[in-house]
Write a structure and sequence with these properties.
Blueprint lengths: L8 E7 L32 E5 L14 E3 L19 E5 L3 E5 L5 E5 L5 E5 L30 E8 L5 E4 L6 H8 L17 E6 L5 E6 L15 H7 L4 E7 L5 H15 L7 E7 L6 H14 L5 E3 L8 H14 L2
Parallel strand pairs: 1-3, 2-4, 9-11, 9-12, 12-13, 13-14
Antiparallel strand pairs: 1-8, 2-7, 5-6, 5-8, 10-11
Enzyme class: hydrolase
Subcellular location: Cytoplasm
Protein name: GTPase Obg
Length: 335
């Protein structure tokens, strides 16, 4: 999937169908001059329904569908015939889609399971026909109920990626390179910051035909929790990852400081994120000789206080199988 096709945020207007009006018909037949009321009920207006689809990974198909309306209910007829129900409108969305009310910003619901259906705009109820209003004192009522009106609202659809492993790091830390080496994903890679402007997903093949999903989240900068840089547009994707992989290049000025800054941004955005399993990976370690690596290990053992870390090189293909083993172990112990 190209970066331009990855859409994780759309605003759309939805409107249900209005209910059909009830009929005020009076029964007429040969030799029956004054028959009683026989007006039927109006049909229900169509619902607008969101349905989860595990085969979708983006909201791209809704990028240009800004107005979605369901069908109106049919009017009631004679002989107590009920009007037809309005056609329901289904909107397929990827798993992990959060639905918000645009006016209040309130979360209405989330779609997390394949086939899960949620009504976002309920169709209007059909009006009752005059047959319902007959009584001993009013045997020929000439009135019926109108149908209930349309329910309309502006909603926001936000996608939070359902990936097993989320790559967290500063711009140009090597996240896209690692994803391209471990998976068949083809993210844009270059030697300048903010190459990745949209999340990328890839499937990591593991032993015995097993696999897990990894997401490359655009690089964090200081102040991201307050919306600086790409802000909340990518931080929300980290919320659904089972394991967070912190990627820090070996040539960083201070590995511990970089990790602390990244951790602090996540903490300020959503403290619950810190409950997830974490792994620190030192990338670009092919630049280190054995003596320098040993010095760094001694320093990291002291600074990181028992946190797990690994040295890898995506370009030189070093430590990648060890990384897969570690991630698989963490994923299966955190389930």
């Amino acid at each position: 999937m190209t970066e331009g096709n990855f859409v994780d945020y759309v605003k759309i207007y939805v409107a249900s169908g209005k209910g059909g009006k009830g009929s005020s018909h009076l029964h007429r037949e040969k030799f029956i001059e004054k028959g009683g009321p026989d007006g039927g009920d109006g049909g229900r207006g169509g619902h607008v329904i969101l349905i989860g689809n595990k085969n979708l990974w983006t909201l791209f198909h809704l990028k240009f569908a800004r107005h979605i309306k369901a069908g109106h209910g049919g009017d009631g007829g004679s002989a107590r015939s009920t009007g037809a129900d309005g056609e329901d409108k289904y909107i397929e969305v990827p798993l992990g889609t959060v639905v918000r009310d645009q006016e209040t910003n309130e979360i209405l619901f989330e779609i997390t399971e394949d086939g899960e259906k949620r009504v976002v705009a309920k169709g209007g109820k059909g009006g009752l026909g005059n047959w319902h209003f007959r009584s001993s004192t009013n045997q020929t009522p000439r009135y019926a109920q109108p149908g209930m009106p349309v329910e309309e609202k502006d909603i926001i659809l936000e996608l939070k990626l359902l990936a097993d492993v989320g790559l967290v790091g500063f711009p140009n830390a090597g996240k896209s390179t690692l994803l391209s080496v471990l998976t068949s994903a083809k993210p844009k890679i270059a030697d300048y910051p903010f190459t990745t402007l949209k999340p990328n997903l890839g499937i990591v093949s593991y032993r015995d035909f097993q696999s897990f999903v990894m997401a490359d989240i655009p690089g964090i900068i200081e102040g991201a929790a307050e919306g600086k840089g790409l802000g909340h547009y990518f931080l929300r994707h980290i919320e659904r990852n089972s394991v967070l992989l912190f990627l820090i290049p070996a040539d960083a000025d201070n590995i511990k400081n970089e990790y602390e800054i990244l951790l602090d941004e996540l903490r300020r955005y959503n403290p619950e994120i810190l409950d997830k399993e974490r792994l620190i990976v030192i990338s670009k370690s092919d630049m280190l000789d054995e003596e320098l690596k040993a010095e760094m290990k001694a320093e990291l053992d002291k600074d990181l206080q028992g946190l797990q870390y690994l040295f890898i090189s995506s370009v030189a293909q070093q430590g990648l199988m060890e990384l897969k083993d570690k991630l698989w172990q963490m994923l299966n112990t955190s389930l």
